[in-house]
Design goal:
Belongs to the ferroportin (FP) (TC 2.A.100) family. SLC40A subfamily. One of its GO terms (biological process) is iron ion transport. One of its GO terms (cellular component) is membrane. This protein folds into two domains: 8-223, Up-down Bundle (Growth Hormone, Chain: A), CATH 1.20.1250; 251-456, Growth Hormone, Chain: A. 82% of the residues lie in helices and 0% in strands. It contains 16 helices and no strands. Helix 6 (157-188) packs antiparallel against helix 11 (295-323) and helix 11 (295-323) packs across helix 13. The longest helix has 33 residues, at 120-152. The radius of gyration is 22 Å and the shape is globular.
């Protein structure tokens, strides 16, 4: 009983609460901005090209630059690296906001679909948009993979699980609130005024963010300090050796990933990221804006999608307890694939020309997100069960890289088929990817290997 009490008690509860505050503030601004940017860009150009190109560049930068930023963070003190990345993210948001305001006020002449990519203002927007995404992703990884483990205690499994659940819920609440707040602003004020309000909020929140990081560090009683051997000022020879080891680690990660007995389950998870259209992403936001939908409704749609994720944190445990982890995964995938197939059928049969058809289309997508989030948790538990602890980080980050590559490919397709009338085809491709994920997982479940039987 005493051991269970210790396991459920965080090592540094006060510092952990400060961490939740940082996570809430950074997530709220980030989700609001990721809704605002595609919604406003869609006003500038009636095509998916601007949004798809901006997302394509961002995913490419994340895929290539992620390991480099990770190495930088590992070599710097935790608070200093986080503060630096927060400043970079805020500066990138403000520059992007200034560029968008310039374009909205008539500084960006109407260009052809292909000529838009060569406009200096759009190149600046893509560059700083990618930088903001990379910095934001790095901050999120620092919280979810590093800081929370140190503050909750790596040997306190119940406390760590509870902290992970709270971080997920904070992120999902912000995903609901951020787009909803900006959608309400956009429905009442001009886009220029809304972007200016967002920029002011970013700048004024940065000092508070840095102060909360300082409080978290002070309350942690030194647990966030890195060993002195891991210092940014180490010799160049050591850095060169680290870079060489980094390339070897990437190669080793792919070899270990492809040799895992739960590879089909992971491939199914990656295929879900090909669904870049039938979800609350930038392409859907751009499409709905160009359909003339009220911004507050678009924000509500994204919020409801996030709410499904919040509900899934409670539903998944019940489903897994009743069906078992593997059957729960199949149920989630079939549930999502079936609803998305219905959504695509609604789109193709009506072209969502009437509001009732459009609302039905959106409701089906919202409910399908429950299946996505349940499978997300199933995939995490399958990994925790099957992947050895010594390989967990390497194999896990390799899966994340592959998921990023999947989004990158889909954004490339969206760039080629950038006109609004191609939305139906993009939707069908997204649906087929989810159906493919369900088929791969079903085949793996129907033909269990001895290793699968031993593990599950």
């Amino acid at each position: 009983e005493e051991q269970a009490r210790i396991s459920a008690t965080p090592a540094h509860p006060e510092s952990l609460f400060a961490l939740y505050g940082i996570h809430f503030l950074s997530c709220l601004l980030e989700h609001a901005w990721h809704f605002a940017l595609p919604a406003v860009i869609a006003i500038l150009h009636r095509s998916f090209l601007p949004v798809a190109a901006e997302n394509f560049v961002s995913q490419l930068v994340i895929f290539v630059g992620g390991p480099c930023v990770g190495a930088f963070m590992d070599s710097m003190p935790r608070p200093a690296s986080f503060n630096f990345l927060s400043i970079v993210q805020t500066f990138s948001m403000v520059v992007s906001a200034a560029v968008v305001v310039f374009a909205l006020r008539g500084g960006a002449a109407t260009a052809s679909t292909t000529g838009l990519l060569l406009k200096p203002w759009f190149i600046i927007l893509m560059t700083f948009g990618a930088l903001e995404r990379l910095a934001g992703l790095a901050c999120g990884v620092a919280f979810e993979r590093d800081w929370v483990v140190q503050l909750a205690g790596s040997n306190r499994s119940l406390a760590l699980a509870n902290a992970n659940a709270i971080l997920r819920r904070v992120d999902l609440v912000c995903e609901i609130a951020g787009p909803l707040l900006f959608g309400i602003l956009l429905s009442r004020y001009t886009p220029v005024k809304c972007i200016c309000i967002a920029a002011v909020a970013m700048v004024t929140s940065l000092p508070l963010l840095i102060y909360l990081v300082h409080c978290t560090y002070k309350l942690s009683k030194g647990v966030l300090d890195r060993p002195k051997t891991r210092n940014w000022t180490e010799s160049k020879g050591y850095q060169d050796q680290s870079s060489e080891e980094g390339f070897r680690a990437i190669k080793r990660g792919w070899i270990q990933y492809l040799s895992q007995p739960i590879l089909p389950a992971s491939v199914a998870y990656v295929l879900l990221y090909f669904n870049a259209v039938l979800g609350p992403g930038s392409l859907m936001t751009s499409f709905l804006t160009q359909q003339g939908l009220n911004p507050s409704i678009i924000g509500s749609f994204r919020g409801m999608c996030a709410l499904m994720g919040f509900v899934a944190t409670f539903v998944s445990s019940a489903v897994i307890g009743k069906l078992g982890v593997l059957k729960a995964g199949l149920t989630a995938l079939v549930f999502q694939a079936g609803l998305l197939a219905l959504a695509v059928a609604v789109y193709w049969s009506t072209q969502v020309k009437h509001q009732a058809a459009l609302i039905t289309f959106l409701v089906l997508i919202v409910v399908s997100r429950l299946g996505f989030w349940v499978y997300d948790m199933v995939d995490a538990q399958v990994f925790q069960t099957a992947v050895p602890i010594s390989q967990a980080n390497l194999v896990g980050t390799t899966e994340v890289s592959l998921a990023s590559l999947a989004e990158l490919v889909m954004m490339g397709v969206a760039i080629v088929a950038s006109e609004v009338n191609h939305f139906g085809g993009l939707s069908a491709l997204s649906m087929v990817a989810v159906v493919g994920a369900a088929a791969i997982y079903w085949r793996w479940l129907a033909n269990p290997s001895p290793e699968q039987a031993r593990l599950f």
